[in-house]
Amino acid sequence: MGADRWEQLAPWNPDPSVALLQLQARFLADNVDFASEVRESLANAKESVRFTREEGDPYQLLDIYQSDLEYLEEISSRPLPTDPQERIAILRRIYQSGAQGLGNILDIESVAGFGVESDDDGWPLISRPLTEQEIQAGLGSATPTIEEAKEGGHKLSDSLGRGESICFPVYDKNLQPVGWWFIGYTLD
């Protein structure tokens, strides 16, 4: 399966890492039924353990399935967190076993230069802010509007690989910043 491109608009904040957290909280609230995700993942983990025990484990996956099940049972044994970043951390851990990530802005853990830096393999997943020169070269303007970002974002993202992300500020017609445009690719 190939990686899919995603794009999201974050609210304006001079610090793109703060804008990222605000965007993630909104995305989580609007798009994820957290309790159902945990419940369904727990049921799937139980079934994976049961099936592997009954049918055999030629690929040595039972330990992974059991670890996932133990984690989910522990999470389910107490009230689910309400903090968006705690919920996102749990979702990342749930999807970690599948090595595909969440497939959206929730995979991004920080913004380069504003938080944890990635290692040579790109982990944790970070978004790299573009320079004014890169924005100008890719979009024809160093102060792109939301529409220009929507229309030309593919030009900026053509060089990105799986799990990679970039971000840049977007502006209104008066050249006032109105948000951060995040573009990335899924892991799968």
Task: Compile the SSE list and pairings.
Layout: E1 5-11, H1 16-31, H2 34-55, H3 62-76, H4 84-96, E2 110-111, E3 126-129, H5 132-139, H6 146-157, E4 165-171, E5 177-185
Parallel strand pairs: 2-3, 3-4
Antiparallel strand pairs: 1-5, 4-5
Helix pairs in contact: 2-3, 5-6
Task: Tell me briefly what this model is.
With 188 residues, this protein is α/β, with parallel strands linked by helices. The protein has one domain (5-185). It has helices spanning 16-31, 34-55, 62-76, 84-96, 132-139, 146-157, and strands spanning 5-11, 110-111, 126-129, 165-171, 177-185.
Fold and architecture overview:
- The chain is of the alpha/beta class and 188 residues long.
- The protein has one domain (5-185).
- 46% of the residues lie in helices and 15% in strands.
- It has six helices and five strands.
- The protein has helices spanning 16-31, 34-55, 62-76, 84-96, 132-139, 146-157; strands at residues 5-11, 110-111, 126-129, 165-171, 177-185.
- The chain has a five-stranded mixed beta sheet, with helices on both faces.
- Helix 2 (34-55) runs antiparallel to helix 3.
- The longest helix has 22 residues, at 34-55.
- The protein is elongated.
- It starts with a strand and ends with a strand.
